[in-house]
């Protein structure tokens, strides 16, 4: 069923967002959303299959409502790519506080608002890949306000009086830089 009426789409989107925020579980129901326009911010079409980047995918039972724009789906894929990156003999994303790198770049690129940790929580939980190196925890990002990483990435400068040890600082810079590059490589 194609839905072209903007008012109807707005109502559906508000309903789904309210259901998501309330933690609604549809108990066996099945919702599938299809975005027609690249980078759309709202549902453009509803039918019984998913289309992600123009590829049809059959949908099995859904355990939760997921309504992602094309950009959100690409961000999910970029986070997955970040989780696969290596740094020397270890995974690059290896500390809980590395979620601050994801936060910082998503804020710098305008996908999230600075200091809106509730909004970031909602966003990151919506786009969270199934496999991550360190599970996302709200407090790991909220603590960014107590660090030098609270500033936009292009203004970061190592200062031993505020940054502490050089090794963790350099690692955070590397995680942040690589996530930004992955987003850029994917047109985000």
Q: What can you tell me about this protein's structure?
A:
The chain is mainly alpha-helical and 188 residues long. The chain is built from seven helices and four strands. It has a two-stranded antiparallel ribbon. A hairpin with a 2-residue loop joins β3 and β4. α2 packs across α7 and α3 crosses α7. About 19% of the residues have low confidence.
Summarize the helices and strands and which ones pair or pack.
Blueprint: H1 6-21, E1 49-52, E2 55-58, H2 70-84, E3 86-87, E4 90-91, H3 99-108, H4 117-127, H5 138-142, H6 160-163, H7 166-185
Antiparallel strand pairs: 1-2, 3-4
Which terms would index this structure?
188 residues, mainly alpha, two-stranded antiparallel sheet, 7 helices, 4 strands
In short:
This protein is mainly alpha-helical. The protein has helices spanning 6-21, 70-84, 99-108, 117-127, 138-142, 160-163, 166-185, and strands at 49-52, 55-58, 86-87, 90-91. The chain has seven helices and four strands, in the order H-E-E-H-E-E-H-H-H-H-H.
How many helix segments? Answer: 7
Query: What share of the residues does DSSP label as strand, in percent?
Result: 5-15%
Strands of the largest sheet, in order across it? Answer: 1-2
Radius of gyration: 18 Å
Percentage of residues assigned to helices: 40-55%
């Amino acid at each position: 069923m194609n839905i072209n009426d903007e008012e109807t789409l707005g109502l559906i989107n508000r309903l789904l967002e309210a259901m998501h925020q309330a933690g609604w579980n549809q108990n066996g129901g099945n919702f599938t959303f299809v975005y027609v326009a690249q980078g759309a911010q709202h549902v453009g079409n509803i039918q019984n299959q998913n289309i992600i980047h123009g590829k049809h995918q059959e949908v099995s039972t859904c355990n939760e409502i997921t309504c992602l724009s094309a950009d959100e789906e690409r961000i999910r894929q970029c986070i997955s790519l970040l989780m696969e990156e290596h740094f020397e003999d270890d995974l690059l994303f290896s500390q809980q506080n590395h979620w601050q790198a994801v936060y910082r770049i998503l804020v710098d690129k305008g996908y999230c608002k600075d200091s809106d940790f509730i909004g970031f929580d909602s966003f990151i939980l919506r786009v969270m890949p199934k496999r991550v190196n360190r599970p996302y925890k709200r407090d790991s990002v909220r603590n960014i306000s107590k660090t030098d990483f609270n500033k936009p990435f292009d203004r970061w400068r190592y200062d031993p009086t505020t940054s502490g040890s050089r090794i963790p600082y350099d690692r955070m810079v590397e995680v942040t830089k690589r996530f930004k590059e992955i987003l850029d490589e994917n047109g985000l």
